Amino acid sequence: MKPVTAIEARAWPVARAAAVHRYGLAVHAGERRRLATAWLLLAVGALLAAGVFSVLLVAARTPAIGAMLPGVDFFRVALVVHVDLSVLVWFASCAGLLWSIAGTERWLGAAWIGWGLALLGSVALAAAPFVQYALPVMANYVPVLDGSVFIAGLVIVGSGFGLTALRALAVPAKVGTALAPEGALRFGLNTAAVAAAVALLALAWSAFAVPRELPARAYYEMLFWGPGHVAQFCWSLIMLVAWLWLASLTGARVPLSPRVMALLFAIGLASVFATPVIYLAWDVTSVEFQRLFTWQMRFGGGLAIVPVTAAIALALFASRSVSLDAKDKPLRAALIASVLLFAAGGLIGFLIRGSDVRIPAHYHGSIVGVTLALMGLIYALLPRLGFAAPASRAAAWQPWVYGGGQLLHIVGLVWSGGYGVQRKVAGAEQVLRTPGEIAGMGLMGLGGLIAVIGGLLFVIVVLRALKPNPDAATRASARRGEVDTRARSRRGEAA
User: Fold this and answer.
1) What is the C-alpha to C-alpha distance for residues 186 and 179, in angstroms, rounded to an integer?
2) Where are the domains positioned within the chain?
3) Which residues contact 74 (CB under 8 A, 6 or more apart)?
4) Residue 140 above 70 pLDDT?
5) Helices 148-170 and 108-131 sit at what angle, rounded to 10 degrees?
6) d(Cα 112, Cα 47) in Å, to the nearest integer?
7) Global pTM value
8) Residue 152 DSSP one-character state
9) Which of 365, 364, 304 is nearest to 339 (CA)?
10) Which of 150, 288, 392, 403 has a CA 20 to 30 Å removed from the CA of 481?
Protein backbone atom coordinates (compact mmCIF):
# COMPACT_ATOMS: atom_id res chain seq x y z
CA MET A 1 0.00 0.00 0.00
CA LYS A 2 1.43 3.38 -0.92
CA PRO A 3 1.81 5.89 1.94
CA VAL A 4 -0.71 8.68 2.40
CA THR A 5 0.69 12.03 1.26
CA ALA A 6 0.15 15.32 3.05
CA ILE A 7 -2.14 16.51 0.25
CA GLU A 8 -4.26 13.35 0.42
CA ALA A 9 -4.40 13.70 4.20
CA ARG A 10 -6.28 16.96 3.82
CA ALA A 11 -9.31 15.04 2.63
CA TRP A 12 -9.00 12.32 5.30
CA PRO A 13 -11.14 12.83 8.43
CA VAL A 14 -10.08 11.98 11.97
CA ALA A 15 -13.45 10.51 12.73
CA ARG A 16 -16.15 9.51 10.27
CA ALA A 17 -18.78 11.55 12.04
CA ALA A 18 -16.63 14.66 12.43
CA ALA A 19 -16.52 17.46 9.90
CA VAL A 20 -13.13 18.60 8.63
CA HIS A 21 -12.03 21.97 10.00
CA ARG A 22 -8.72 23.46 8.86
CA TYR A 23 -7.55 25.98 11.42
CA GLY A 24 -5.17 28.71 10.31
CA LEU A 25 -4.73 32.44 9.73
CA ALA A 26 -3.97 34.28 6.52
CA VAL A 27 -0.66 36.17 6.54
CA HIS A 28 -1.32 39.30 4.50
CA ALA A 29 1.39 41.18 2.64
CA GLY A 30 2.28 44.76 3.51
CA GLU A 31 2.83 46.55 6.79
CA ARG A 32 1.29 43.82 8.95
CA ARG A 33 3.71 41.25 7.56
CA ARG A 34 6.65 43.58 8.25
CA LEU A 35 5.41 44.11 11.79
CA ALA A 36 4.98 40.37 12.32
CA THR A 37 8.51 39.81 10.97
CA ALA A 38 9.87 42.38 13.43
CA TRP A 39 8.24 40.55 16.35
CA LEU A 40 9.58 37.22 15.07
CA LEU A 41 13.13 38.62 14.94
CA LEU A 42 12.77 40.00 18.47
CA ALA A 43 11.53 36.62 19.72
CA VAL A 44 14.45 34.76 18.15
CA GLY A 45 16.87 37.44 19.33
CA ALA A 46 15.61 37.03 22.89
CA LEU A 47 16.25 33.27 22.73
CA LEU A 48 19.70 33.86 21.25
CA ALA A 49 20.59 36.27 24.07
CA ALA A 50 19.14 33.82 26.62
CA GLY A 51 21.40 31.14 25.12
CA VAL A 52 24.42 33.39 25.64
CA PHE A 53 23.48 33.83 29.29
CA SER A 54 23.04 30.06 29.64
CA VAL A 55 26.69 29.74 28.59
CA LEU A 56 27.60 32.43 31.12
CA LEU A 57 25.78 30.36 33.76
CA VAL A 58 28.27 27.58 33.15
CA ALA A 59 31.18 30.02 33.00
CA ALA A 60 30.17 31.51 36.35
CA ARG A 61 30.65 28.08 37.96
CA THR A 62 34.08 27.61 36.34
CA PRO A 63 36.79 28.74 38.83
CA ALA A 64 39.22 30.31 36.36
CA ILE A 65 36.53 32.09 34.33
CA GLY A 66 34.00 32.94 37.02
CA ALA A 67 36.42 35.36 38.72
CA MET A 68 36.55 37.47 35.53
CA LEU A 69 32.78 38.01 35.37
CA PRO A 70 31.26 41.15 36.92
CA GLY A 71 29.59 41.15 40.34
CA VAL A 72 29.76 38.81 43.29
CA ASP A 73 27.13 36.21 42.39
CA PHE A 74 27.10 36.25 38.60
CA PHE A 75 25.53 32.78 38.46
CA ARG A 76 22.25 34.08 39.85
CA VAL A 77 22.59 37.31 37.88
CA ALA A 78 22.89 35.36 34.63
CA LEU A 79 20.05 33.07 35.68
CA VAL A 80 17.71 36.04 36.22
CA VAL A 81 18.42 37.50 32.78
CA HIS A 82 18.24 34.08 31.10
CA VAL A 83 14.80 33.36 32.57
CA ASP A 84 13.32 36.77 31.75
CA LEU A 85 14.58 36.70 28.15
CA SER A 86 13.65 33.06 27.47
CA VAL A 87 10.20 33.28 29.06
CA LEU A 88 8.90 36.83 29.48
CA VAL A 89 10.35 38.48 26.34
CA TRP A 90 10.02 35.31 24.21
CA PHE A 91 6.35 34.78 25.08
CA ALA A 92 5.48 38.47 24.77
CA SER A 93 7.18 38.67 21.36
CA CYS A 94 5.35 35.59 20.08
CA ALA A 95 2.08 37.09 21.29
CA GLY A 96 2.92 40.31 19.43
CA LEU A 97 3.70 38.23 16.32
CA LEU A 98 0.30 36.50 16.36
CA TRP A 99 -1.66 39.65 17.23
CA SER A 100 0.03 41.40 14.28
CA ILE A 101 -0.98 38.61 11.89
CA ALA A 102 -4.55 38.45 13.19
CA GLY A 103 -5.02 42.21 13.50
CA THR A 104 -6.06 44.96 11.13
CA GLU A 105 -4.29 47.84 9.37
CA ARG A 106 -5.54 50.32 11.97
CA TRP A 107 -3.30 51.91 14.61
CA LEU A 108 -0.15 50.47 13.08
CA GLY A 109 1.81 53.43 14.43
CA ALA A 110 0.94 52.36 17.96
CA ALA A 111 1.86 48.78 17.07
CA TRP A 112 5.34 49.83 15.96
CA ILE A 113 5.79 51.91 19.12
CA GLY A 114 4.90 48.82 21.16
CA TRP A 115 7.50 46.77 19.28
CA GLY A 116 10.13 49.51 19.67
CA LEU A 117 9.54 49.67 23.43
CA ALA A 118 9.82 45.88 23.72
CA LEU A 119 13.11 45.96 21.77
CA LEU A 120 14.54 48.81 23.86
CA GLY A 121 13.53 47.14 27.12
CA SER A 122 15.01 43.80 26.02
CA VAL A 123 18.35 45.46 25.26
CA ALA A 124 18.30 47.06 28.71
CA LEU A 125 17.61 43.68 30.36
CA ALA A 126 20.54 42.06 28.54
CA ALA A 127 22.92 44.94 29.22
CA ALA A 128 22.01 45.51 32.88
CA PRO A 129 24.46 42.98 34.41
CA PHE A 130 27.40 44.65 32.67
CA VAL A 131 26.57 48.30 33.43
CA GLN A 132 25.25 48.12 37.01
CA TYR A 133 25.69 45.64 39.81
CA ALA A 134 22.34 44.79 41.40
CA LEU A 135 21.15 42.14 43.83
CA PRO A 136 19.59 39.14 42.04
CA VAL A 137 16.16 38.35 43.47
CA MET A 138 14.78 34.92 42.56
CA ALA A 139 11.10 35.88 42.74
CA ASN A 140 8.44 33.65 41.22
CA TYR A 141 7.33 34.41 37.64
CA VAL A 142 9.61 37.42 37.13
CA PRO A 143 13.03 37.18 38.80
CA VAL A 144 14.75 40.57 38.90
CA LEU A 145 18.01 42.39 39.39
CA ASP A 146 17.13 45.00 41.99
CA GLY A 147 18.75 47.90 40.18
CA SER A 148 17.48 50.88 38.20
CA VAL A 149 18.71 49.70 34.77
CA PHE A 150 17.12 46.26 34.95
CA ILE A 151 13.87 47.53 36.49
CA ALA A 152 13.65 50.22 33.80
CA GLY A 153 14.08 47.49 31.17
CA LEU A 154 11.23 45.48 32.69
CA VAL A 155 8.97 48.55 32.77
CA ILE A 156 9.75 49.37 29.13
CA VAL A 157 9.16 45.78 27.97
CA GLY A 158 5.90 45.67 29.94
CA SER A 159 4.81 48.98 28.41
CA GLY A 160 5.48 47.71 24.90
CA PHE A 161 3.65 44.47 25.56
CA GLY A 162 0.75 46.33 27.18
CA LEU A 163 0.41 48.74 24.26
CA THR A 164 0.44 45.81 21.83
CA ALA A 165 -2.23 43.92 23.79
CA LEU A 166 -4.44 47.00 24.13
CA ARG A 167 -4.21 47.68 20.38
CA ALA A 168 -5.21 44.06 19.73
CA LEU A 169 -8.30 44.64 21.87
CA ALA A 170 -9.11 48.12 20.54
CA VAL A 171 -8.98 47.35 16.80
CA PRO A 172 -9.46 43.58 16.40
CA ALA A 173 -10.20 41.94 13.08
CA LYS A 174 -13.76 40.70 12.74
CA VAL A 175 -14.40 37.18 13.95
CA GLY A 176 -17.44 36.80 11.71
CA THR A 177 -20.94 35.62 12.52
CA ALA A 178 -20.45 32.36 10.58
CA LEU A 179 -17.39 31.64 12.77
CA ALA A 180 -15.09 29.91 10.32
CA PRO A 181 -11.93 28.20 11.65
CA GLU A 182 -9.93 31.38 11.06
CA GLY A 183 -12.50 33.33 13.07
CA ALA A 184 -12.19 30.88 15.96
CA LEU A 185 -8.42 31.44 16.08
CA ARG A 186 -8.94 35.20 16.02
CA PHE A 187 -11.35 34.82 18.91
CA GLY A 188 -8.77 32.77 20.78
CA LEU A 189 -6.13 35.46 20.29
CA ASN A 190 -8.63 38.07 21.47
CA THR A 191 -9.17 36.13 24.70
CA ALA A 192 -5.39 36.00 25.16
CA ALA A 193 -5.27 39.79 24.77
CA VAL A 194 -7.97 40.15 27.44
CA ALA A 195 -5.94 37.95 29.79
CA ALA A 196 -2.85 40.09 29.10
CA ALA A 197 -4.78 43.27 29.87
CA VAL A 198 -6.07 41.83 33.15
CA ALA A 199 -2.53 40.74 34.07
CA LEU A 200 -1.27 44.30 33.51
CA LEU A 201 -4.15 45.65 35.59
CA ALA A 202 -3.21 43.21 38.36
CA LEU A 203 0.41 44.37 38.16
CA ALA A 204 -0.60 48.01 38.56
CA TRP A 205 -2.86 47.08 41.48
CA SER A 206 -0.07 45.14 43.18
CA ALA A 207 2.43 47.96 42.62
CA PHE A 208 0.04 50.30 44.43
CA ALA A 209 -0.84 47.89 47.25
CA VAL A 210 2.43 46.10 48.12
CA PRO A 211 4.42 47.99 50.81
CA ARG A 212 7.70 49.19 49.29
CA GLU A 213 9.55 48.95 52.61
CA LEU A 214 9.42 45.15 52.51
CA PRO A 215 12.69 43.26 51.88
CA ALA A 216 13.45 42.87 48.17
CA ARG A 217 12.62 39.16 48.04
CA ALA A 218 9.23 39.58 49.73
CA TYR A 219 8.40 42.73 47.74
CA TYR A 220 8.96 41.28 44.28
CA GLU A 221 7.36 37.96 45.25
CA MET A 222 4.14 39.74 46.22
CA LEU A 223 4.36 42.23 43.34
CA PHE A 224 4.39 39.55 40.64
CA TRP A 225 2.29 36.85 42.33
CA GLY A 226 -1.13 37.97 41.05
CA PRO A 227 -0.15 39.20 37.56
CA GLY A 228 2.20 36.23 37.10
CA HIS A 229 -0.63 33.76 37.63
CA VAL A 230 -2.98 35.66 35.31
CA ALA A 231 -0.35 35.90 32.57
CA GLN A 232 -0.24 32.10 32.43
CA PHE A 233 -3.78 32.17 31.03
CA CYS A 234 -2.58 34.42 28.19
CA TRP A 235 0.29 32.06 27.30
CA SER A 236 -1.95 28.98 27.55
CA LEU A 237 -4.59 30.46 25.24
CA ILE A 238 -1.92 31.34 22.69
CA MET A 239 -0.60 27.78 22.96
CA LEU A 240 -4.06 26.40 22.11
CA VAL A 241 -4.13 28.59 19.00
CA ALA A 242 -0.71 27.23 18.01
CA TRP A 243 -1.83 23.63 18.62
CA LEU A 244 -4.87 23.97 16.36
CA TRP A 245 -2.88 25.64 13.61
CA LEU A 246 -0.05 23.08 13.73
CA ALA A 247 -2.51 20.18 13.78
CA SER A 248 -4.20 21.42 10.62
CA LEU A 249 -0.87 22.01 8.87
CA THR A 250 0.26 18.43 9.56
CA GLY A 251 -2.92 16.61 8.51
CA ALA A 252 -4.25 15.98 12.03
CA ARG A 253 -8.00 16.67 11.99
CA VAL A 254 -9.12 18.05 15.33
CA PRO A 255 -12.71 16.87 15.99
CA LEU A 256 -13.76 20.24 17.41
CA SER A 257 -15.84 22.70 15.40
CA PRO A 258 -14.99 26.42 15.38
CA ARG A 259 -18.04 27.16 17.56
CA VAL A 260 -16.96 24.59 20.14
CA MET A 261 -13.42 26.00 20.09
CA ALA A 262 -14.74 29.53 20.60
CA LEU A 263 -16.70 28.26 23.60
CA LEU A 264 -13.59 26.56 24.98
CA PHE A 265 -11.53 29.73 24.52
CA ALA A 266 -14.20 31.64 26.46
CA ILE A 267 -14.18 29.01 29.22
CA GLY A 268 -10.39 29.18 29.34
CA LEU A 269 -10.63 32.93 29.90
CA ALA A 270 -13.48 32.85 32.43
CA SER A 271 -11.34 32.27 35.52
CA VAL A 272 -9.33 35.42 34.75
CA PHE A 273 -12.31 37.55 35.75
CA ALA A 274 -11.99 36.32 39.33
CA THR A 275 -8.83 38.46 39.58
CA PRO A 276 -10.42 41.76 40.71
CA VAL A 277 -12.59 39.83 43.18
CA ILE A 278 -9.48 38.32 44.78
CA TYR A 279 -7.81 41.74 44.99
CA LEU A 280 -10.90 43.29 46.57
CA ALA A 281 -11.48 40.45 49.03
CA TRP A 282 -7.95 39.94 50.40
CA ASP A 283 -4.87 41.96 51.19
CA VAL A 284 -2.05 41.33 48.69
CA THR A 285 0.27 40.32 51.54
CA SER A 286 -2.09 37.69 52.96
CA VAL A 287 -1.74 33.92 52.67
CA GLU A 288 -5.34 33.71 51.41
CA PHE A 289 -4.48 36.03 48.49
CA GLN A 290 -1.65 33.75 47.37
CA ARG A 291 -3.71 30.60 47.87
CA LEU A 292 -6.65 31.87 45.80
CA PHE A 293 -4.43 32.67 42.82
CA THR A 294 -2.91 29.21 43.08
CA TRP A 295 -6.40 27.71 43.01
CA GLN A 296 -7.41 29.99 40.14
CA MET A 297 -4.62 28.63 37.98
CA ARG A 298 -4.83 25.03 39.18
CA PHE A 299 -8.56 24.57 38.63
CA GLY A 300 -9.48 27.31 36.14
CA GLY A 301 -6.51 26.80 33.86
CA GLY A 302 -7.44 23.26 32.90
CA LEU A 303 -11.09 23.88 32.03
CA ALA A 304 -10.33 24.42 28.34
CA ILE A 305 -6.92 22.80 28.09
CA VAL A 306 -8.02 19.29 29.11
CA PRO A 307 -10.65 18.79 26.35
CA VAL A 308 -8.45 20.43 23.70
CA THR A 309 -5.50 18.25 24.71
CA ALA A 310 -7.69 15.16 24.42
CA ALA A 311 -8.91 16.25 20.97
CA ILE A 312 -5.39 16.99 19.77
CA ALA A 313 -4.16 13.62 21.07
CA LEU A 314 -7.02 11.85 19.25
CA ALA A 315 -6.23 13.71 16.03
CA LEU A 316 -2.52 12.90 16.28
CA PHE A 317 -3.24 9.22 16.90
CA ALA A 318 -5.66 9.03 13.98
CA SER A 319 -3.15 10.69 11.61
CA ARG A 320 -0.11 8.68 12.76
CA SER A 321 0.22 6.97 9.34
CA VAL A 322 0.18 10.24 7.38
CA SER A 323 3.36 10.76 5.37
CA LEU A 324 4.67 14.32 5.73
CA ASP A 325 6.90 16.48 3.59
CA ALA A 326 10.28 17.47 5.04
CA LYS A 327 9.01 20.97 5.84
CA ASP A 328 6.06 19.56 7.84
CA LYS A 329 8.03 17.10 9.99
CA PRO A 330 9.36 19.79 12.39
CA LEU A 331 5.81 21.06 12.87
CA ARG A 332 4.47 17.64 13.86
CA ALA A 333 7.45 16.97 16.14
CA ALA A 334 6.95 20.32 17.89
CA LEU A 335 3.20 19.66 18.32
CA ILE A 336 3.67 16.19 19.82
CA ALA A 337 6.50 17.30 22.10
CA SER A 338 4.49 20.33 23.23
CA VAL A 339 1.44 18.26 24.16
CA LEU A 340 3.56 15.72 26.05
CA LEU A 341 5.57 18.29 28.02
CA PHE A 342 2.56 20.45 28.88
CA ALA A 343 0.61 17.38 30.04
CA ALA A 344 3.59 16.26 32.14
CA GLY A 345 3.84 19.68 33.75
CA GLY A 346 0.14 19.67 34.57
CA LEU A 347 0.24 16.21 36.13
CA ILE A 348 3.30 17.08 38.21
CA GLY A 349 1.37 20.02 39.65
CA PHE A 350 -0.81 17.55 41.56
CA LEU A 351 2.30 15.99 43.15
CA ILE A 352 3.48 19.20 44.79
CA ARG A 353 3.83 19.04 48.56
CA GLY A 354 5.70 21.80 50.35
CA SER A 355 8.46 23.86 48.72
CA ASP A 356 10.74 21.35 47.01
CA VAL A 357 12.01 21.07 43.45
CA ARG A 358 8.77 19.50 42.22
CA ILE A 359 7.46 23.08 41.93
CA PRO A 360 9.99 24.09 39.24
CA ALA A 361 9.41 20.68 37.60
CA HIS A 362 5.73 21.62 37.27
CA TYR A 363 6.23 25.04 35.75
CA HIS A 364 9.17 23.94 33.58
CA GLY A 365 6.92 21.35 31.95
CA SER A 366 4.14 23.86 31.38
CA ILE A 367 6.41 26.63 30.12
CA VAL A 368 8.33 24.30 27.82
CA GLY A 369 5.02 22.99 26.44
CA VAL A 370 4.10 26.53 25.41
CA THR A 371 7.61 27.19 24.07
CA LEU A 372 7.60 24.08 21.86
CA ALA A 373 4.23 25.02 20.38
CA LEU A 374 5.55 28.50 19.54
CA MET A 375 8.76 27.07 18.09
CA GLY A 376 6.72 24.87 15.76
CA LEU A 377 4.50 27.77 14.77
CA ILE A 378 7.53 29.93 13.94
CA TYR A 379 8.79 27.14 11.67
CA ALA A 380 5.40 27.23 9.93
CA LEU A 381 5.32 31.04 9.68
CA LEU A 382 8.80 31.53 8.24
CA PRO A 383 7.80 30.74 4.60
CA ARG A 384 4.58 32.72 5.04
CA LEU A 385 6.64 35.75 6.05
CA GLY A 386 8.88 35.46 3.00
CA PHE A 387 11.69 33.26 4.33
CA ALA A 388 12.80 29.70 3.64
CA ALA A 389 10.90 26.80 5.20
CA PRO A 390 13.04 24.82 7.67
CA ALA A 391 13.19 21.36 6.09
CA SER A 392 16.52 19.98 7.31
CA ARG A 393 17.08 16.98 9.55
CA ALA A 394 18.25 19.39 12.23
CA ALA A 395 14.86 21.12 12.13
CA ALA A 396 13.03 17.78 12.38
CA TRP A 397 15.15 16.65 15.34
CA GLN A 398 15.26 19.98 17.19
CA PRO A 399 11.88 19.66 19.00
CA TRP A 400 12.80 16.14 20.16
CA VAL A 401 16.23 17.26 21.43
CA TYR A 402 14.82 20.27 23.25
CA GLY A 403 11.72 18.49 24.52
CA GLY A 404 13.62 15.33 25.47
CA GLY A 405 16.19 17.31 27.41
CA GLN A 406 13.49 19.21 29.26
CA LEU A 407 11.68 15.95 30.04
CA LEU A 408 14.85 14.53 31.61
CA HIS A 409 15.25 17.82 33.46
CA ILE A 410 11.82 17.71 35.06
CA VAL A 411 12.01 13.96 35.78
CA GLY A 412 15.23 14.64 37.68
CA LEU A 413 13.52 17.44 39.60
CA VAL A 414 10.53 15.24 40.51
CA TRP A 415 12.89 12.46 41.57
CA SER A 416 14.90 14.82 43.78
CA GLY A 417 11.76 16.49 45.10
CA GLY A 418 10.64 13.12 46.41
CA TYR A 419 13.73 13.21 48.65
CA GLY A 420 12.88 16.73 49.84
CA VAL A 421 15.55 18.65 47.89
CA GLN A 422 14.63 22.34 48.25
CA ARG A 423 14.13 24.75 45.38
CA LYS A 424 16.09 27.92 44.60
CA VAL A 425 19.35 26.60 46.01
CA ALA A 426 22.45 25.39 44.15
CA GLY A 427 25.78 23.77 44.79
CA ALA A 428 26.59 23.03 48.42
CA GLU A 429 23.37 24.76 49.54
CA GLN A 430 21.39 21.80 48.19
CA VAL A 431 22.86 19.49 50.87
CA LEU A 432 22.62 16.32 48.76
CA ARG A 433 23.18 13.41 51.16
CA THR A 434 21.96 10.20 49.52
CA PRO A 435 22.82 8.57 46.17
CA GLY A 436 19.18 9.02 45.12
CA GLU A 437 19.34 12.78 45.65
CA ILE A 438 22.63 13.04 43.76
CA ALA A 439 21.33 10.86 40.89
CA GLY A 440 18.13 12.91 40.59
CA MET A 441 19.92 16.23 40.43
CA GLY A 442 22.50 14.73 38.06
CA LEU A 443 19.71 13.70 35.70
CA MET A 444 18.28 17.20 36.03
CA GLY A 445 21.63 18.71 35.02
CA LEU A 446 22.06 16.36 32.06
CA GLY A 447 18.56 17.13 30.82
CA GLY A 448 19.18 20.84 31.21
CA LEU A 449 22.36 20.60 29.13
CA ILE A 450 20.54 18.71 26.35
CA ALA A 451 17.71 21.26 26.45
CA VAL A 452 20.18 24.14 26.08
CA ILE A 453 21.61 22.40 23.00
CA GLY A 454 18.07 21.99 21.63
CA GLY A 455 17.29 25.66 22.25
CA LEU A 456 20.46 26.83 20.51
CA LEU A 457 19.68 24.43 17.65
CA PHE A 458 16.31 26.15 17.19
CA VAL A 459 18.01 29.53 16.89
CA ILE A 460 20.51 28.13 14.37
CA VAL A 461 17.74 26.57 12.26
CA VAL A 462 15.76 29.81 12.21
CA LEU A 463 18.81 31.96 11.43
CA ARG A 464 19.66 29.67 8.50
CA ALA A 465 16.08 30.03 7.24
CA LEU A 466 16.13 33.83 7.39
CA LYS A 467 16.91 34.16 3.71
CA PRO A 468 14.49 36.23 1.62
CA ASN A 469 12.23 33.87 -0.30
CA PRO A 470 9.40 35.97 -1.78
CA ASP A 471 8.16 33.11 -3.94
CA ALA A 472 7.31 31.06 -0.83
CA ALA A 473 5.28 33.90 0.66
CA THR A 474 3.53 34.50 -2.66
CA ARG A 475 2.60 30.82 -3.01
CA ALA A 476 1.37 30.70 0.61
CA SER A 477 -0.82 33.79 0.07
CA ALA A 478 -2.16 32.37 -3.18
CA ARG A 479 -3.04 29.05 -1.56
CA ARG A 480 -4.72 30.86 1.31
CA GLY A 481 -6.68 33.00 -1.15
CA GLU A 482 -7.91 29.90 -2.94
CA VAL A 483 -9.04 28.40 0.37
CA ASP A 484 -10.86 31.61 1.32
CA THR A 485 -12.53 31.78 -2.12
CA ARG A 486 -13.76 28.18 -1.84
CA ALA A 487 -15.02 28.83 1.71
CA ARG A 488 -16.99 31.92 0.56
CA SER A 489 -18.38 29.93 -2.35
CA ARG A 490 -19.59 27.14 -0.02
CA ARG A 491 -21.21 29.66 2.31
CA GLY A 492 -22.97 31.25 -0.69
CA GLU A 493 -24.27 27.88 -1.87
CA ALA A 494 -25.49 27.08 1.66
CA ALA A 495 -27.35 30.38 1.80
Assistant:
1) 10
2) 28-173, 323-479
3) 56, 60, 66, 129
4) yes
5) 160
6) 21
7) 0.85
8) H
9) 365
10) 392
